[in-house]
């Protein structure tokens, strides 16, 4: 960090940031002072000092209260992020004091969370009870971005959909199947090409999911429209929609097996090369991971050849 940036960081104090956020959220200095148990004059002084540090007005004052200026809106965004990070740090350090010996921050896509991670993380947690795992579900591109930006130690995603250069290890493979009601004309088939799927209404996942991206690319290559009438956020919701005659859909094979009790449904093999999918464990640098994250990575995806 260069001189001016270091000086700026030293001149910003957390109490002033907390008061600034309170004033913006409550719309008034008096209300913020009451909430924070501090004199209104002290709040005003801290806000004035803060404006002097950043070199621009942060608040518009009127009879109705105060509102942030454009610069104030930017500071509010960053201040919330800083304070949230501090709260999270406090929580993690408190857990270390209570005996937790490590934290692993992991992001994973829906397919990995539904099909494989419950068993893998359960086995790891039983063997390493003093390591806490923070897991969040995101689309594959967001998983890769979080790892690249340092918001997660590890990620599990489809690299085909992520477009981000990271170190990776093979994690699991799955295969997409076409899920239809048992009364559907395709239900008696052993396999079906995607061209035939395009003749029906489709129940799909988020527009940015790897399955949706693959379907759109295949439909574009076939020069045919993708009749994706309904989009849902979970595989069980997709199965319920399909069971009620609202379309057909593409699911990973093991996910369908795990959810067979969701209705009167059948799975038909999808005859396309892109139906074979690889999920990969990603990190910025496996060798530089914290000890707990490295231990988890080595257990769920043993080191072979990193890409």
Can you walk me through this structure?
This protein has 307 residues and is of the alpha/beta class. The chain has three domains: 3-96, Arc Repressor Mutant, subunit A (Orthogonal Bundle), CATH 1.10.10; 100-172 and 278-300, D-Maltodextrin-Binding Protein, domain 2 (3-Layer(aba) Sandwich), CATH 3.40.190; 174-276, D-Maltodextrin-Binding Protein, domain 2. Helices cover 47% and strands 22% of the residues. It is built from 14 helices and twelve strands. The strands form three sheets. Strands 3, 4, 5, 6, 7, 10, 11 and 12 form an eight-stranded mixed sheet that branches. Helix 2 (14-26) packs across helix 3, helix 2 (14-26) packs across helix 4 (40-54) and helix 3 (29-36) packs across helix 4. The radius of gyration is 25 Å and the shape is elongated. The relative contact order is 0.13. The model has no long low-confidence stretch (mean pLDDT 86).
Write the layout of secondary structure elements.
Blueprint: H1 3-11, H2 14-26, H3 29-36, H4 40-54, E1 59-62, E2 65-68, H5 70-97, E3 102-108, H6 110-115, H7 117-127, E4 131-137, H8 140-149, E5 154-157, H9 159-162, E6 167-181, E7 191-192, H10 194-197, E8 202-204, H11 210-221, E9 228-231, H12 235-243, E10 249-252, H13 253-258, E11 265-270, E12 276-283, H14 291-300
Parallel strand pairs: 3-4, 3-5, 7-11, 8-9
Antiparallel strand pairs: 1-2, 5-12, 6-10, 6-11, 6-12
């Amino acid at each position: 960090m260069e001189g001016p940036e270091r000086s700026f960081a030293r001149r910003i104090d957390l109490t002033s940031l907390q008061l600034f956020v309170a004033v913006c959220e409550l719309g008034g200095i008096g209300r913020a002072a009451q909430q924070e148990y501090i004199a209104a004059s002290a709040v005003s002084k801290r806000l004035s000092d803060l404006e002097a540090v950043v070199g621009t007005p942060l608040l518009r004052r009127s009879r109705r209260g105060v509102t942030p200026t454009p610069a104030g809106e930017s500071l509010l965004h960053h201040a919330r992020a800083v304070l949230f990070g501090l709260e999270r740090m406090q929580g993690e350090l408190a857990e270390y004091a209570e005996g937790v010996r490590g934290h692993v921050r992991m992001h994973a896509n829906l397919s990995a969370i539904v099909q494989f991670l419950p068993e893998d993380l359960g086995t790891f947690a039983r063997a390493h009870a003093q390591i806490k795992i923070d897991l969040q579900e995101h689309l594959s591109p967001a998983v890769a971005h979080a790892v690249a930006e340092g918001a997660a130690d590890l990620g599990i995603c489809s690299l085909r959909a992520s477009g981000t250069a990271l170190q990776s290890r093979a994690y699991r493979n799955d295969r997409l199947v076409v899920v239809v009601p048992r009364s559907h004309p395709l239900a008696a088939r052993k396999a079906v090409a995607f061209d035939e799927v395009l003749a029906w209404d489709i129940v799909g996942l988020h527009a940015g999911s790897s399955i949706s991206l693959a379907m759109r690319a295949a439909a574009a290559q076939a020069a045919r429209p993708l009749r994706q009438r309904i989009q849902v956020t979970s595989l069980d919701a997709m199965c319920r929609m399909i069971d009620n005659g609202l379309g057909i859909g593409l699911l990973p094979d093991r996910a369908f097996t795990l959810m067979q009790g969701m209705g009167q449904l059948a799975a038909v093999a999808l005859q396309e090369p892109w139906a074979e999918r690889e999920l990969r464990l990603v990190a910025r640098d496996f060798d530089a991971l914290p000890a707990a994250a490295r231990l988890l990575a080595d257990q769920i995806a043993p080191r072979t050849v990193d890409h």
